[in-house]
Amino acid sequence: QVQLVESGGGLVQAGGSLRLSCAASASIFSINAMGWYRQAPGKEREPVAAISNGGRTYYADSVKGRFTISRDNAKNTLYLQMRSLKPEGTAMYYCAASSDYDVALASNEYDYWGQGTQVTVSS
Fold this sequence. Notes:
mainly beta, 11 strands, 0% helix
């Protein structure tokens, strides 16, 4: 069982930056894909970015060029660097991990989820 705890959310003005972290309770060397999702009020949870154990990355079109996903397996931590934030980026951001998939682009491919960290972008 792997527990994931997100941190780094907060209130930021449009155009600003935030760095989210996701700390895993166990070694993520045994974890394959990891990813970030977000859910805005009244909307469905949507994928933001994903990263394989080997470091291949994938991004939603809405965040390409502005967000960077990375992982530090030695520190059991996943990151999401967010730049040029927009008000539509206001959402709860969730970290997810998959034991089975090298690359996971669908939510049902993830086994473990964090509780989320709130990001609010003011205009």
